[in-house]
Amino acid sequence: MPRTDGKNPQLGIEISGYASPEGDPEENRKLSNRRAIEVLNYFNYKGIVRRRIIARGYGATQGQEGNPEESRRVEVRLVDLDDVKQD
Predict the structure, then answer these.
(1) Whose C-alpha in 14, 23, 60, 77 is 20 to 30 A from the C-alpha of 83?
(2) pLDDT digits (tens, 9 = 90+) for 61-85
(3) Domain residue spans in the chain?
């Protein structure tokens, strides 16, 4: 994993949680958010400070089309924190 300490102060992690389109949309959004938070907690446990992590749940709104199994996922990517708006 690339360093996210003082050597790269603008580098952070964006975690995006998703859910399949089946079921209640609000429950799917909550589920996708819990998925993202679990990954955030893992990274925090491994020593990555919370302020360098952005976690969001998108429900089924931005999930994979077609296969529901592929919609149940979390994506992790490195981002420039200066370019990513935090909610």
Answers:
(1) 60
(2) 754 566 677 788 999 999 988 887 5
(3) 11-80
Domain 11-80, CATH: 3.30.1330.60
53 exposed, middle or buried (CB, 10 Å; 0-12, 13-18, 19+)?
Answer: buried
Helix spans in 1-87 (H): 25-45, 68-71
Q: Which two tokens stand for residue 1?
A: 């994993």
The structure tokens 């302020």 sit at 51
Q: Which two tokens stand for residue 8?
A: 């790269």
**Cα torsion 53, 56, 57, 62: sign:** negative
Q: How far apart are CA 70 and CA 68, in angstroms?
A: 5
Q: Is 5 helix (H, G, I), strand (E, B) or coil?
A: coil
What size, in residues, is the chain? 87
Q: Which tens digit of pLDDT belongs to each residue from 25-46?
A: 999 999 999 999 999 999 999 9
